[in-house]
């Protein structure tokens, strides 16, 4: 495992970083348009999707959600009562189906024991309290917790994923391995605490990471961030620049 950068982010806020982050947002918005998430019909479906999408594509997550819906399992009450083998069968498209079945069971059990399956009661807590509680549940890591806080509870919590780490490191704004909490703090210190902004920003980062700033062979010539990007300017030959 790569060593995390321990003295980052710097303790002082930077006006330059604030301005740069909003410039990046504006450029991505102009390029991709409105990308707001989360594609789901209910808050329960958002939470289930947030648990299932870890380390797998959204397309495969959708297949599993459809399989759960087809078997009447798209609620935590139904998941709690579900036969584990049937549940695992529905989750096969998500690859780590045994582990993800355990996670759904753990969340269902927590919701039953503490809230009598009332998800709204859980989500209406202040964001810091909610986030701490989510992180105490088996299988809920920081990215899943922040997905739930932002998209299911509609409270301000910036989501960090592999695309965010890759893009902002290539831009030259963050270390290669800043650590989840440090990077989340850095974004939240330099952006207004705005649910709508965090929602859209994360979705735009996802669009760039998925379509343009790929792991190998990023399409820098067609990237809306090229003028701001350290990696792009170092590696894209003059002849291929727009
Ligand atoms: S210019 Fe290239 S490396 Fe930089 S963000 Fe765009 S695609 Fe990624």
* Percent of residues in beta strands: under 5%
CATH fold descriptor of the largest domain = Endonuclease III, domain 1
| Global outline | globular
- CATH hierarchy: architecture of the largest domain: Orthogonal Bundle
Count of separate structural domains: 2
- Mean pLDDT rating: 94
**CATH superfamily membership of the largest domain, which one?**
Hypothetical protein, domain 2
Runs in which pLDDT lies below 50 for 5 or more consecutive residues are none
CATH top level of the largest domain?
Answer: Mainly Alpha
Q: Give the termini separation.
A: 38 Å
> Count the helices. How many?
13
Secondary structure category: mainly alpha
Report on the structure:
This protein is mainly alpha-helical. The chain folds into 2 domains: 15-33 and 158-235, Helix-hairpin-Helix base-excision DNA repair enzymes (C-terminal) (Endonuclease Iii, domain 2); 43-152, Hypothetical protein, domain 2 (Endonuclease III, domain 1). It has 13 helices and no strands. α8 packs antiparallel against α9 (142-152) and α10 crosses α12 (195-211). It is globular, with a radius of gyration of 19 Å. It starts with 14 loop residues before the first helix and ends in a 7-residue tail after the last helix. The model has no long low-confidence stretch (mean pLDDT 94). The structure holds iron/sulfur cluster. Iron/sulfur cluster (SF4) binds next to α10 and α13.
């Amino acid at each position: 495992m790569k060593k995390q950068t321990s003295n980052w982010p710097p303790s002082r806020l930077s006006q330059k970083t604030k301005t740069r982050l909003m410039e990046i947002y504006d450029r991505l918005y102009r390029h991709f348009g409105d990308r707001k998430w989360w594609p789901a019909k209910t808050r329960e479906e958002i939470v289930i999707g947030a648990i299932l999408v870890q380390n797998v594509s959204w397309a495969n997550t959708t297949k599993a959600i459809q399989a759960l819906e087809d078997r009447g399992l798209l609620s935590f009450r139904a998941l709690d009562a579900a036969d584990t083998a049937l549940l695992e069968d529905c989750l096969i498209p998500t690859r780590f189906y045994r582990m993800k079945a355990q996670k759904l069971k753990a969340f269902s059990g927590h919701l039953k024991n503490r809230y009598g399956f009332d998800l709204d009661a859980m989500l209406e807590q202040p964001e810091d309290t909610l986030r701490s509680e989510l992180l105490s549940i088996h299988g809920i890591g920081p990215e899943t917790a922040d997905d739930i806080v932002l998209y299911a509870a509609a409270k301000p919590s910036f989501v960090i994923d592999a695309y965010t780490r890759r893009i902002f490191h290539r831009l030259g704004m963050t270390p290669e391995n800043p650590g989840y909490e440090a990077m989340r703090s850095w974004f939240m210190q330099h952006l207004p605490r705005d649910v709508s902004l965090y929602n859209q920003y994360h979705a735009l980062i996802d669009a760039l990471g998925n379509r343009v700033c790929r792991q190998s062979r990023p399409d820098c010539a067609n990237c809306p961030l090229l003028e701001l990007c350290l990696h792009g300017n170092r590696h894209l030959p003059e002849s291929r620049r727009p």
